[in-house]
TrEMBL record:
Catalysed reaction, written as an equation: 5-dehydro-4-deoxy-D-glucuronate = 3-deoxy-D-glycero-2,5-hexodiulosonate
MF annotations from Gene Ontology: 4-deoxy-L-threo-5-hexosulose-uronate ketol-isomerase activity; zinc ion binding
Record keywords, A-Z: Isomerase, Metal-binding, Zinc
NCBIfam families assigned: PRK00924.1
Pathway: Glycan metabolism; pectin degradation; 2-dehydro-3-deoxy-D-gluconate from pectin: step 4/5
Highest taxon above the source species: Bacteria
Keyword Zinc: yes
Protein name per UniProt: 4-deoxy-L-threo-5-hexosulose-uronate ketol-isomerase
Signal sequence segment: none
Source species: Enterococcus phoeniculicola ATCC BAA-412
GO biological process, one term: D-galacturonate catabolic process
Main function: Catalyzes the isomerization of 5-dehydro-4-deoxy-D-glucuronate to 3-deoxy-D-glycero-2,5-hexodiulosonate.
Length: 280
């Protein structure tokens, strides 16, 4: 089974008077991984498609030809994949490869078939995917977390010590506009991306997972720097972050998240930092 939900764009003025429920309906994706299903969200922010592919007893393949006005899914798009579940496999145009937890893949446009499967239906793989429009075909590249030298950021005293693994990034592989990475907070740290920033030239989506405890919650901060709002996020839920919005979070315990970005600039450091004194 495959589902895809549409989410439309909003200006900062749109959300000024939103209730908590309205904010959640527009920016929070509560169901990302469902065993045996493909759960996708199409955001009109830079036309990113993201979501979860969770195969159990059967192989799963994303089919979006009619929805995208193409003859096959990746005819005009590039795809990023990271497995955050049990061991699985990915078959790309007939070539099958093992995908253990924290393995990723960049798959270029014009790839005709991508099939996902799990090694054990009782411990299924959980493939998180991000897909964006592409203008050029770049080579497919498998990326393991073991191959990526992490950026070490933050410090324990600020409760934001973390490792940032850049999977789809110019330092690792070529892409048209997709960037994708994996951030792991150290035990005792709770904040990510604080001091916070915006980046007008690209949007971002987050999925939060590997919570320290079952009852861990993440408070995802969003909105304009001088008019902040928040979403309470559970395990395996995702957030859409427009280019004008800050995107920071604090948890009741440590956690991990995958970030994916697309837009006009693939320079990771192209961001507009927000002074802590300007936050309201």
């Amino acid at each position: 089974m495959q589902t895809m939900e549409n989410r439309y764009t909003h200006s900062p003025e749109d959300i000024r008077h939103y209730s908590t429920e309205q904010l959640r309906q527009e920016f929070l994706v509560e169901k990302v991984f469902t065993p045996g299903e493909i759960c996708l969200t199409y955001t009109h922010n830079d036309r990113m498609i993201f979501g979860g592919v969770t195969p159990t007893t059967k192989e799963l393949e994303i089919t979006l030809d009619k929805e995208l006005g193409v003859t096959y899914f990746l005819e005009r798009r590039e795809l990023g994949v990271i497995n955050i579940g049990g061991p699985g496999f990915i078959e790309i145009d007939g070539q099958k490869e093992e995908m253990k937890k924290q393995d990723g893949y960049y798959i270029g446009k014009e790839t005709k078939q991508v099939v996902f499967s799990s090694a054990d239906s009782n411990n299924p793989a959980k493939f998180y995917i991000s897909c964006v429009p592409a203008h050029h075909k770049y080579p497919n590249v498998k990326i393991s977390i073991d191959q990526v030298k992490p950026m070490e950021a933050g410090e324990g005293l600020s409760l934001n010590e973390r490792k940032i693994y850049q999977y789809i990034h110019p330092n690792v592989c070529d892409s048209c506009q997709l960037q994708m990475g994996y951030t792991i907070l150290e035990p005792g740290s709770a904040w990510n991306t604080m001091p916070c920033h915006t980046h007008e030239r690209r949007m971002e989506a987050y999925v939060y997972f590997d919570f320290a405890k079952e009852d861990t919650k993440v408070f995802h901060m969003m909105g304009k720097p001088d008019e902040t709002k928040h979403l309470v996020v559970d395990q395996d839920q995702a957030v859409i972050s427009p280019s004008w919005s800050i995107h920071s979070g604090v948890g009741t315990g440590n956690y991990s998240f995958i970030w994916s970005m697309c837009g006009e600039n693939i320079t990771y450091t192209d961001m507009d930092m927000v002074d802590m004194g300007d936050l309201k």
